[in-house]
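Hi R.,

Here's the chain you asked about this morning:
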Amino acid sequence: MPPWTDDLIASAQGPACSGRHTISRLHGPSALTRSPERPRASLVVAAPAGDRERWVAVAGRTAVETGGERDLVSRLAARYWDLEDRADDLAAILDEDQVRVVLHPETVHRYVF
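And here is the predicted structure, written out as tokens:
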């Protein structure tokens, strides 16, 4: 599964979040081997090499949520891929079982140089 995320907190301001935004990440079911008592995650996204330095770091609680996986895959594939060239790749992903892990941000830090 490509490392796609959805709704990357673009409108959150400052180090705390309002709770209205989440980040969804898809995994195959075998990627989830245990359920910690207090599941948490963090995510750092940086600008591509050659761009001016900037990044966003998000941390918060996580939850496995069901429903909407196929719609999310289709929406993100359309965002990141030219589907005329990658239709077979999208079909292969849609044929796999997916689990949606949702990060509920509690802190967001940004750096722009």
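One quick note: Helices lie at 69-80, 83-95.

Cheers,
M.
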